[in-house]
Design goal:
This protein is of the alpha+beta class. Helices cover 28% and strands 32% of the residues. Its cofactor is Zn(2+).
Length: 401
Amino acid sequence: MAFFCQKDSYATELLTEVISCSPAQLKAENGGKKETLSGFNIILKDTVLFPEGGGQPDDRGFIGEVQVLRVTRQGPEAVHFVLTALEPGSEVLVRIDWSRRFDHMQQHSGSWDDSAVLFELDTPTMTNQQVEAVELLVNQKIRQRVPVVVRVITTDDDEFNQVRSRGLPDDHAGPVRIIDMEGIDANMCCGTHVANLSDLQVIKILGTEKGKKNKTNLVFLTGERVLKYTARSYSVEKCLTALLKNGPEEHIEAVEKLQKSVKTLQKNNLTLLRDLAVLTAQSFKNSPDSGKLFSLHRKEGDNEFMNIIANEIGTESAITLLHFTPQQQSSSSHSGLLCQWVISGDVMLMDSGISDDNLHDIAIYYIIVKGSLPSVLSVCLSVCHGYSLVAASVCHGNPSR
């Protein structure tokens, strides 16, 4: 069965009849989260909404005032998923999201136009010169206003075995559609296509990718997507020009210089942090008033910084309490989990946690002593304006406590 949308790809609405309405569910994504929607599958006498197939996405639109969220093909029928039930036998006006449909028509017909040219080249790899030649030839065909003719044949027709095809679906029934780009290619397809290559407007090949069976996949845009891509690219180029204080042709060189400078600064910063860690630990050890507890908080620290301090102080007597804030966490917001370690001789951290925007919560640190002594040290901190230590206690017994 050929749907109305396949007979006239430019039709935007159709008055038809509801054949059936049955409860159904649809697995969908909303804001990146998967969810299951409960609704109804609607089968119409005919439809202007294209069901997914032939490498082309399905349409969106409305049946009356009810939004269609998905259109799929089941055998000879197009099934429309909606959230509101519709009365079988009722007459309804089906309207299409034309912007989405026309974009799909352009991309789908454009891919056929490209593949037809590539089929003639018959090459598993392409040089930049070949890509440019293909792009030039395809755009020439667009300017020549090559007609795209849709013909319907049966599987008994002699032409059926002569045209290119990826094969028919197992549940296919009825006639077969042939998409004929005059003088370029003829192929079987169930999708919606432009009536003339001039409707593609322009094709821009962005690059190539290695395909299957020694084929080359083209990465391309056509139609309105080229205009949107050009607008975005110009906007980015304009911003980079203002930030880098040079012209577009110098952007790459300027960014490469910045990357080298950043690597040099990071290396120097790491060296300074290491030296600072050693000096900090030595200062504590040499101080006559150092006591039994060493506590330090630094935003710029990392695991290596803390390990150096811990190793330099040693395991003789002092409990070493170190904090550092990850660099990706802003100074204005301390909510979430901070990476904090507690080290005391052979003591290692099991778990830690802190969460409060105003830095007033209490963080509990669980640490265990390595060796034969099954001890647990529970250190409670009141985190406010300076990470000051409130209390420390040792609990002997089961580490799970």
